[in-house]
Amino acid sequence: MAGALILLLMITVVPYILGSGLIRNKDGGAYALLFRYAAGWVVLYGLFYLPALVCTLMHTSLDLLIAIYLVILLAAAVYSLRILIRERINPLKEAKELFVNPNVILPSVLILGHSLVTFFMMHLDDDDYSYIGTAATSVYTNTLMVYNGGTGAVLKNLETDGMNRLVAAPQFAFYAFLSKISGIRAVTICHSILPPVFTVLFFTAFLMIARELFGDDRRKCGIFMVFCFVISAFSGFSTFTSGSFVMLRSWQGKAQIVGLILPLIIAFGLRLIRVEKLQSADVIMLTALLSAASLQTAMGAVLAAMAAGLFLLLVSFMKKSGSYFVKCLPAFVIPAICALVYLKIR
Q1: Chain Cα centroid distance, residue 140
Q2: What pLDDT is recorded for position 345?
Q3: 41, CA 20 to 30 Å: which among 127, 287, 292, 301?
């Protein structure tokens, strides 16, 4: 029971607190609750990448990684909590404002309905070998990349054993972290608990695009969300469409790239076009986005960095100022590290 409560707090309250320092009231509007939650998840992922990469390369214990990450997470949460209190952010008020408008009813029913489907039903995939098998092995052995998650054999060479991509993008370690602190098996977390959360996150990312396109017009935002859901729901003609990833394979890094990171980068780019100048929170948000992408998949990190770089170049050209691109350059360091690690191990 205590483990379930810890996991619940980690996937609900903690992301909201972390996102409170990045989403301003004027940017969130009526959707501030969801936007803070989505931004917080990106920070939760982003803070995990570098400690996980270093500990994985050094083959340390999972316990050491968890200890390091919890210290970093606590510091970030305290900093964000100070902003939350100073700005007098009220989650209950934001929740009431979110659901008071009838235009949110139909999108909410569709999204929450699918969340229930992902909770009660399960999609099996060959990539469970990478994400779940390796996470479970890390928990049971208290190691990181010492044993093959599929066969149990000792890893002698990451290149020949095909584990190089998991080292460069160690999302399995994040699932192992959640499993270890909660006492709940990694397979249950990935197949039952997290999919409803990711469903909400994915469509929140689409909602952030709608907010940039239509502003405070909640009717247009609602229609946009319904179309996003319908398009995703009818993408089952192939297992490799973005809709199939979003609806069926949400715990996988590839799905989170197309369902969360890339839409948020699009929303980020549209926001830069709208605002007068770049804020420090924007640079932090982009850094967290690219770091989170690096945790999920190496190829996704490169794709996310390319998309972000293109947006920054376009914004710099439109506003005739190179400061947008220059100030955001530090955000590209982490995906560059991810790509270098992947290529070197490969």
Answers
A1: 25
A2: 61
A3: 127
